Structures are given as C-alpha cells and as structure tokens.
Amino acid sequence: MRSGILTTGNPNGGPKVREFERIFAEFIGVKHAIAVNSGTSALYAALIAAGVGPGDEVIVPSFTFIATANVVLAVGAKPIFADIDLSTYNISVEEIRKKITPRTKAIIPVHLYGLPADMDPIMELAEEHNLVVIEDACQAHGSLYKGRKAGALGHMAAFSFYPSKIITTGEGGMITTNDDELAEKLRRIRTHGQVKGYDSVMFGMNLRMTEINAAIGIAQMKKIESFLQRRRKNALLMTEELSSLDDMIVLPTEPPGYTHNWYVYTIRLTNPSIRNKLQSYLRNEGIGAMVYYPIPLHKLPLYERLGYSKISLPNSELASQSVLSLPVHPLMSEEDVIYVAEKVKEGLRRIS
Ligand SMILES: Cc1ncc(COP(=O)(O)O)c(C=O)c1O
C-alpha cells in the first residue's frame, strides 16, 4: 500500500501482480501465469480466449462447484454434463466420449478435491476432435499427475485463491498456460481487451487482480510447500485412523501416478441414508464436516429451469447423497485428526 500503486489497468499488471505471476508460473512449471480477481474469472477468461461462444457446447462434470458450468452460460455456450467415476469423483473419460458432438468446442475437467482428472486420455480425445481443454484447477494447487503439476496439463488452467483454498489472496484467481498467443489474449481480456489503453482490440472485462491481493499471494507462496506437507500428513493419518471402517465408509484414493494435494478429504458412506445424521453428529461435536456438493449441478433449480431436469447422471447423484468431507487443513494438529477420526467412529456406532 505504501508503494502507491494499488492496481493498474495495464494488461501486463503492476509490479506485485507480475511478481506473483512469475512465482506461480515457476511453481506450476508453465511459461505463463495471468492473475485475475477470482477462479470464476479465470475460467471465464479462458473460455473467451478459446473463442467459445453461442452455438458451442462445453463438456463439464455436474459434480463440481457451480462456477465450472456458469462460466459456459456466461459466454453464451451450452454446458453438457458428463458423469464421474465414483472411485475418484472426477469426470469419466468414457462419459466425455459419449457426449462429444460436432458442436463440442471445449472440455473443462475439474481436479475435484485436489485429485487430478485422468488428463492423458482427455488430451488424446481433445486432439482427435480438435477441442480446447481448460483444467479447472481451482482446488488443485500443488497436485501432480504423472510427475507434472495440475495446471500444466491442458491448454489452459484456472486456479482460485478464495480463502478456503490451498493459498489465498482474499479473492483471486490465476490462469496458467504454455501458449504464448493465449497468454497475450488473456492479459488483454482481463482489462477490456485493451493493449495500451482505450484501444480495445477484442472483448474483455475488468477481471484484474489488485496489487494488494498479489502482495498477499506472494507471501502465501512462501508457505505453500509447508501447507501441502501438513495436509498430506493429516490426510495420511486420517486414512490410517479410519481404515478399520471399510465396510461402512469408502476412503479417498490416491491412485498410482497421482499426488493428491488433500485440499478436501472426502469419505463416502456405503449407506447414504446415514450421511446427514453423521454430519449433524460431527457438527454437534464442533467438527466442520461438510458436503461438497449436496446437489449435482443438473439438479439445481437454475439448471432444471434451463431444461436439464431429465438427464440422468447416476454416479454424480449417488456421490451427492453419500459424500462427507472431513477437515485435514494445515492448522490441525495430529491430536485434532485423531479426535475427528474417533468422533467419526463414535458417530457411526451410535447411528447405525
Ligand atoms: C472447482 C471450482 N471451480 C471454480 C471455483 C471458482 O473460484 P472462485 O470462488 O475463486 O471464483 C471454485 C472455488 O470456489 C472451485 O472449487
């Protein structure tokens, strides 16, 4: 704040924005990172840069946060929902294949809870059908897929720095890409398509990140490795503590070749009818057990009104009814994790 530059309309951003972008690009292992004011803006800008618009279809999962599909509506295109694999909660490659039509322009795979989607076959499909792949990496800072970071796997990727995320800037987002042309477009898109000022060469909006948010981001990046280590330690301990309950709950997986960032630690109740009771029990014990997400997007009033009510995505629907996320965040000690696991066991004993 003392620098006197709070923000700038320059497409290249102010000094703090550029520093944050450089550090983030290096962390992900990509050529370019473009900071914006939210994860939603990052996805929106990526769709504009990809030239997605009216008449186009974009394949997205339904079991995700609403932003993944709403950005498709925002550019005037049509979200096409594909079902997930129940073992990873991520979009199923086979289901994507079934949904491709001549109108399909892009795919937005979400790395849900921080576990990367199966990107190799998705990129192969995209190449075969000439589609743009935008990773929704809003939950996947630091996750790895076959040795490469999430955010370096598609044509573009979107990150969020909302307070609950791995790192935060208050509100904020980032687009990563290895494509020089897309990067230049994205810088313009975040500031009304301007190059030097008042000379819009293309469509854009004010999606800029402020210098204040970027300064917070730079400070957060110094801590990201320790945050990730702490989450991993907590998640592995949680799995150890809960492993005796494998007839009642399905624990989250980290398949070979994948590194989870443990943004969200999600269990699934084999009997969905007790999920809400267990959540209430845990919340009464002061534990922030959450359901991400209780309603798949195609069942939300907004999308039902848009005509999606008749589609059936059985895995997404079952996941919504049976998942429960337990806290493993970096402020939790080993004792806290053991306490949560004990309460899960106690809750299950009392309810069932
Ligand atoms: C999967 C997913 N996509 C998109 C977003 C949107 O990010 P933001 O809240 O920063 O707009 C979020 C986070 O909230 C998210 O979890």
In words, what does this structure look like?
It is globular and about 65 Å long. It has a 7-stranded mixed beta sheet, with helices on both faces. A 3-stranded antiparallel beta sheet has the order 7-6-11, with no helix packed on it. Strands 10-12-13 form a 3-stranded antiparallel beta sheet. The protein has 2 domains: 15-221, 3-Layer(aba) Sandwich (Aspartate Aminotransferase, domain 2), CATH 3.40.640; 226-351, Aspartate Aminotransferase, domain 1. By secondary structure, it is α/β, with parallel strands linked by helices. 39% of the residues lie in helices and 14% in strands. Helix 2 crosses helix 6 (180-189), helix 8 runs parallel beside helix 12 (334-351) and helix 9 (275-284) packs across helix 12 (334-351). Pyridoxal-5'-phosphate is lined by residues 38-40, 64-65, 67-68, 110, 136, 138-139, 160, 162, 173.
Show the helix and strand layout:
Elements: H1 15-28, E1 32-36, H2 39-49, E2 57-61, H3 67-74, E3 78-82, H4 93-99, E4 104-107, H5 119-129, E5 132-136, E6 144-145, E7 148-149, E8 156-160, E9 173-177, H6 180-189, H7 211-221, H8 224-242, E10 249-250, E11 258-259, E12 265-269, H9 275-284, H10 301-308, H11 314-322, E13 323-326, H12 334-351
Parallel strand pairs: 2-3, 2-4, 4-5, 5-8
Antiparallel strand pairs: 1-9, 6-7, 6-11, 8-9, 10-12, 12-13
Helix pairs in contact: 1-7, 2-3, 2-6, 8-12, 9-12
Pyridoxal-5'-phosphate is lined by residues 38-40, 64-65, 67-68, 110, 136, 138-139, 160, 162, 173.
